Amino acid sequence: MTTTRETRVLPVAEEDEDAPSLGTLLLASAGNPRDQAAVRALVDEEIILGRERIRTALVVKKADGRMGCDWERFGKRLYVLGLSEGERAFLDLVLSIAGPHQTSLSRVLEIDDRRLAIVLRATVQLSGCDTLAIGTRT
Hints:
This protein is mainly α. The chain has six helices and three strands; from the N terminus they run βαααββααα.
């Protein structure tokens, strides 16, 4: 017997001031450390997740009614979302953290310092290490 997991894309609704943010909802539904680190990276980046075409490709309502990320589907759509090379490189790395995607670490050459710090923090979070700090030296 086979079962299928039903998911559906959510339309973007007007924001309710009392409603939790999309990032908060996605973080709450992240079920494993890889998913948590990848979602945290997207939330920390702030810009890309704010785009409707990104949300439409990534965010689904799961069978249990919670919002979540469909990383596999997002990976299949990555090259048709009209992203810059730097944005696509960042998302390639985030997808690799999430699991269903592989990319070369050389993609870090194509992202800016801010996004590099986000990817590095996500990698440290995924490792479970709490003694490393990623940031700018002063």
